[in-house]
Design a protein that fits this description.
The complex is a heterodimer of chains A (about 325) and B (about 220). Chain A is mostly helical and about 325 residues long. Chain A folds into 2 domains: about 260 residues, no CATH class; about 40 residues. In chain A, α2 links the parallel β1 and β2. Chain A is elongated and about 80 Å long. The model of chain A has no long low-confidence stretch (mean pLDDT about 90). Chain B is of the alpha+beta class and about 220 residues long. Chain B has 2 domains: about 120 residues, no CATH class; about 100 residues, Glutaredoxin. Chain B has 7 helices and 4 strands. In chain B, strands 2-1-3-4 form a 4-stranded mixed β-sheet, with helices on both faces. In chain B, β1, α5 and β2 form a beta-alpha-beta unit. The longest helix of chain B is centred in the N-terminal third of the chain and has 55 residues. Chain B is elongated, with a radius of gyration of 22 Å. The chains are: A mainly alpha (about 325), B alpha+beta (about 220). At the A-B interface, α1, α7 and α8 of A face α1, α3 and α5 of B.
Chain lengths: ~325, ~220
């Protein structure tokens, strides 16, 4: 077995371990179903909506906040201007599934008390949090992530309200998607550098022992697997082209195996199928938690496209971080 | 569940998945070897049957013998299976080497029987003895194999007998010695002519076998 294949097995082991761990967390503490019961008390809540050139979405956002089932006199909406979603193109379909996958992750990290980001689309804080840990920082354009890291560092609790409906708009073009994801990924790397003392540190529970290390390992694994596949495809195509040229054999479409004997039954294939099935299970569970509908089309697009698109932003994020270059917001 | 136990449980389950995948792969590889063994036994029986028939009938009825043609299709199928097994299992695997030796013997027996029948019944089969090596002494052997595989698929009645030059088998080494095949691989003996050494592409190999024009082709040939 070559070294490259060993690396793939290591990534598969890590991926499987991560998903098995999360699924164990799921079965330990299943998320409650959405309920018609409301809260028993209604504290005053301020919803701050920072905007930057959000003319296309601000009206709908404010309307949806006004439609919240909460005592209006206890609600304070502050729109700070500095500036029922349907995916339409391939990238939107891919992101729709990704966000549903994210619902599963968030809930499982909630079970583990190790949520790593307080998403911008909607997070609620007790005011005393800012008194204890300070206000938002620039934090490499990922202040929501840095706030989560800081709260863990101070032993504060982050919970996921999976029964709340939150809708967001997503980038529609590859350029805008990459800009957003490079910012997120680079933010993760740079915040990790700032909070590196939390990695592998028992004092920070599952956040330090599981979420942070596996987040970073996912980076490495994503880049490694993309590089390995690219190398493998390039060398195979190159060798085949050279063989066709040298032998003079006419190009023919590859023959599909007609007998079980010639099927690929390698250990790597079986493990890849296992990762795929567990990912699918996690997405389906995420859809159940969010009570969202998944289309086969979106699922197919996600599984085909994500492996091509994600390495692009991972690579850019690593490159920028290594060059100490800040990400752009937009 | 205590936190540290969850880490251990996840490790055990993941390790179990790896072990299961390994077990499934091993089981399927064993099934492949059993499949090859079964096919070889069948070929051996069919060869023995043809040989016995030939001895019983002598040269009295060549029509009857040619109604039961010798087994080019079965041998070709076996060659593909063995090549797949060699590429996907360890070629030094004892089972693979043993099967390869049995297959080599069957090839030699088939070749000898074909020679006898062609002399007695005045038929003109086209045969190629192809000597290759899996070791590092033959970088062009894979390409030479590709060319012969293409010819075999194009001309179903073309008989290609592939021999691993370094296989430790008495009958093979005798054949190599009798035909005076040097270790300059790949080497081809076409219709019992003198050995041809070195890689030839498709057109060059066709030029070495003018008899091909009289053979029927399959429907998949492209010019």
């Amino acid at each position: 077995m070559d070294l490259g294949a060993l690396g793939v097995y290591a990534c598969l082991f890590m991926g499987l371990y991560f998903e098995v761990f999360l699924l164990i967390s799921f079965f330990e503490k299943r998320p409650s179903q959405k309920t018609a019961h409301g809260p028993r008390r209604f504290p005053a809540v301020s919803i701050i909506v920072p905007c930057y050139n959000e003319e296309r979405t601000i009206a709908a956002t404010v309307q949806s906040l006004l439609a919240l089932e909460y005592q209006k006199k206890k609600l304070n909406i502050v729109v700070v201007d500095e500036k029922v979603y349907r995916p339409r193109n391939l990238l939107e379909h891919m992101q729709a599934v990704e966000y549903i996958f994210g619902v599963f992750f968030k809930k499982m990290f909630d079970n583990l008390a190790s949520i790593s980001v307080l998403p911008g689309p909607f997070s609620l804080y007790r005011r005393e949090v800012f008194q204890k840990v300070g206000t938002f920082r620039h934090a490499h354009n990922t202040e929501d992530m840095e706030m989560a890291f800081r709260m863990h560092a101070h032993g504060l609790k982050i919970a996921n309200a999976h029964t709340a409906y939150v809708h967001t708009t997503v980038p529609k073009t590859l350029r805008t998607l990459l800009t957003q994801r490079v910012r997120w990924s680079q933010g993760y790397l740079q915040n990790s550098l700032d909070y590196r003392y939390m990695y592998g540190n028992l004092r920070f529970g599952h956040f330090g022992m599981f979420t942070l290390p596996f987040g970073l390992a996912a980076f490495a694994a994503g880049l490694y697997l993309a590089g390995y596949m690219l190398y493998h495809v390039a060398t195979t195509l190159g060798a085949r082209t050279l063989t066709l040229w040298a032998t003079g054999i006419p190009l023919r479409p590859p023959a599909l195996p007609t007998e079980w004997f010639f099927l690929n039954t390698s250990m790597m294939l079986f493990l890849t199928v296992a990762v795929f099935l567990m990912t699918l299970a996690a997405i389906i569970l995420g859809a159940r938690i969010a009570q969202a509908r998944l289309s086969a089309k979106s699922l197919a697009i996600y599984f085909v496209l994500f492996g091509f698109v994600a390495p692009l932003w991972l690579l850019r994020a690593v490159w920028n971080t290594a060059r100490v270059r800040e990400s752009v917001w937009r | 569940m205590k936190d540290w136990r969850k880490y251990i449980l996840a490790l055990i389950i993941t390790a179990a998945m790896f072990v299961t995948a390994f077990y499934l792969t091993s089981m399927l590889n064993s099934a492949r070897l059993a499949d090859i063994r079964g096919a070889q036994e069948q070929i051996a029986i069919d060869l023995l049957s043809s040989e016995t028939q030939f001895e019983l009938l002598g040269n009295l009825d060549c029509n009857l013998i040619t109604q039961n043609p010798i087994l080019s299709e079965e041998l070709n199928s076996m060659a593909e299976r063995l090549s797949f097994a060699e590429n996907n299992l360890n070629p030094e695997n004892d089972n693979v080497v043993r099967l390869k030796k049995q297959y080599t013997l069957l090839e030699i027996k088939d070749y000898l029987l074909m020679e006898q029948i062609s002399k007695k019944c005045n038929t003109s089969p086209v045969s190629i003895l192809y000597f290759y090596s899996n070791q590092d002494d033959c970088p062009d052997c894979t390409r030479a194999g590709d060319v012969l595989t293409y010819l075999r698929q194009t001309y179903p009645s073309l008989r290609v007998y592939s021999f691993d030059y370094h296989l430790d088998l008495g009958a093979l080494q005798t054949l190599i010695s009798l035909r005076k095949v040097k270790a300059d691989l790949p080497a081809l003996i076409i219709n019992n002519r003198i050995p041809v050494y070195g890689f030839r592409n498709l057109e060059e190999t066709r030029a070495l076998i003018p008899e091909l024009k009289d053979l029927a082709t399959s429907t998949t040939e492209t010019k």
